[in-house]
Inverse folding.
């Protein structure tokens, strides 16, 4: 028994259904024998190495207080980043992969709230622009206040009190405890 000839517009032999969708980025990368998660390892290792290199450029006599110098903390962070990168790469090469977000706590279809993102970015940029003029205590308080309002807080008095406590607290922590000076700005001479 012979098969009827197919016309140009009909489905040809060997076709089993709709055409396969184009493979995604991860599938294309994996088909080349590369695990995309190794990019995270490479990024962490790169940042860790950069931190270690830049730490060697810090003069040892800068802000030296006691037995621990200014390079101790960056050296620990840089070394930790390199170690974490190595452990992560080892895990990925052994077959470990992160699980996709199930969407339990977030709405995967919701768009980003660009108004909130813009307000938080504006708070940080405002702090950068005002810190020399107004000083950290005031510019920091403004930054904390605007960011808290942008993120949904609606308790005015509490927001002001927390913003002032955070900015003045960090100012005194850096100046009096750590010996690092933050600009006082218009409060120069008032804050001692």
């Amino acid at each position: 028994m012979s098969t009827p000839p197919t016309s140009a517009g009909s489905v040809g032999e060997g076709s089993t259904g709709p055409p396969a969708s184009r493979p995604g980025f991860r599938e294309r990368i994996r088909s080349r024998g590369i695990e995309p998660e190794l990019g995270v390892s490479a990024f962490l290792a790169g940042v860790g190495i950069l931190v270690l290199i830049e730490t060697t450029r810090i003069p040892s006599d800068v802000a030296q207080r006691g037995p621990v110098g200014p390079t101790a903390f960056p050296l620990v962070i840089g070394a930790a980043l390199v170690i974490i990168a190595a452990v992560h790469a080892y895990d990925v090469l052994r077959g470990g992969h992160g699980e996709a977000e199930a969407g339990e706590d977030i709405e995967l279809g919701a768009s980003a709230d660009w108004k909130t993102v813009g307000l938080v970015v504006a708070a940080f940029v405002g702090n950068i622009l005002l810190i020399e003029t107004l000083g950290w205590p005031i510019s920091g308080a403004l930054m904390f206040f605007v960011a808290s309002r942008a993120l949904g807080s609606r308790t005015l008095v509490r927001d002001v009190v927390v913003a002032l406590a955070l900015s003045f607290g960090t100012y005194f922590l850096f100046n009096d405890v750590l010996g690092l000076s933050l600009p006082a700005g218009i409060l120069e001479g008032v804050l001692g």
